[in-house]
Amino acid sequence: MAMNKETAPPPNPHGRNNVRTPTHVFPGGRKTLALMLTTGLFVFLLSTYHPAALYHSPMATHISPQETKIGHQDKVCNLFNGTWVRDFTGPIYTNITCPTMPDSKNCAKYGKQMDYVNWKWMPHGCDMVRFEPQLFLNIVQGKTLAFAADSIGRNQMESLLCLLSQVETPTKVHSDTKDKFVTWKNYLYEGGKLIGCIYCSEDNIKSFDVITAIQRALRTALNNLTNCQERGLQLTLVRTATPAHFENGFWNTGGYCNRTEPVGKGEAMTRTVEWAIRNAQVEEANRAQKEISHKGRMNIEILDITEAMSTRPDAHPGIHWNNKWMRGYSDCSHWCLPGPIDMWNELLLSLLQKYRKDLQNHQ
Fold first, then answer.
1. Tag placement on the chain: N or C end, fewer CB within 10 Å?
2. Is 18 part of any domain?
3. Which structural domain, as residue segments, surrounds residue 69?
4. For residue 12, is it within any domain?
5. Which residues form the Trichome birefringence-like N-terminal domain (predicted)?
6. Is the distance from CB of 107 to CB of 1 less than 8 angstroms?
7. In sequence order, which residues have a C-beta less than 8 Å from that of residue 319 and are 6 or more positions away?
């Protein structure tokens, strides 16, 4: 699906900008995790700190992103195809027990009813393993986990910090507020030549749709990652786009998200630009994996959350957030903490477990 100038809303200012956030380190000797957020794409990077890796990457093989062994179960199931079911176990953390929760995601503090946390993601054919913070820290011991993303990626990082802070208190080791900036680059160059632009209407310049621009950017990023192995890069996870749920308008025209429970797949927003982005991401990730499969370098996996999140219009901050610059506007793009975004990190842990097992089998 193409987003053209006539139908596209203006760029969303709800934090989807180029912002470097602090690096957090979890102390504790054997349990060290560095989290970094850079800009631009929905990508996770897992690498060793130095060439003397704890594990050496096996010969990369293309595994369907839809089929993953989960937890201690032997059977293979589709982690990304399922449904939300009632679950009153309660979240692993709260806005009281998470010391790093930002106000903008602290929906309960600003009056949102908390029933949206009483659901869990149930993949078809298997059960999801609850997030285990200590296990996650053990898996990434001695490695760097980086989030290269926009503010939705930061949203997931904030969720992960809350989950991990239940066993370790993170220490902020870097903060550079001068790096906070917003910039929009409309023009696309290839080989040093201007070939087009997005969100523009200039004579003699080809206007690209957003999907094409994102696909080209992701292809460039993955190509560079596969060709740059100095840092011992082992695994790249492409997290697919997550739908916003504005109803009766865009973010700047009175759109809101006041649903109180998940919707069925028939009501889900399945014909949105985010689905087109998701399809482009899957295409590029599969293309890159095929190209590197014979080189024995890093693996590329897909963290496909688009379907699951398309049915959760109830879990956005909406008007229940604290942003003095956006008073009166609803945030229907980001996700409350705690909330269904925590499921992304359960999926992340499952994929890391699978990857560690693959590494051990190839030793």
1. C
2. no
3. 24-361
4. no
5. 76-127
6. no
7. 256, 330
The DSSP letter of residue 362 is T
**Helices 151-164, 342-361: crossing angle, 10 deg rounding:** 80
Six-digit token pair at 31? 């349990």
Task: List active site positions.
Answer: 151, 331, 334
pTM: 0.81
Q: Retrieve residue 347's tokens.
A: 């999926």
Tell me whether residue 3 is in a domain: no
pLDDT tens, the chain, 363 aa long: 233 333 344 445 444 433 334 455 554 433 333 332 222 345 566 775 433 332 222 233 233 444 554 444 455 788 999 999 999 999 999 999 999 999 999 999 999 999 999 999 999 988 888 999 999 999 998 888 888 888 999 999 999 999 999 999 888 777 666 566 666 778 888 888 998 998 888 888 899 998 998 898 899 889 888 887 666 667 899 999 999 999 999 888 899 999 999 998 777 766 678 899 999 999 999 999 988 876 666 788 999 999 999 999 999 999 998 876 677 789 999 999 999 999 999 999 999 998 888 777 776
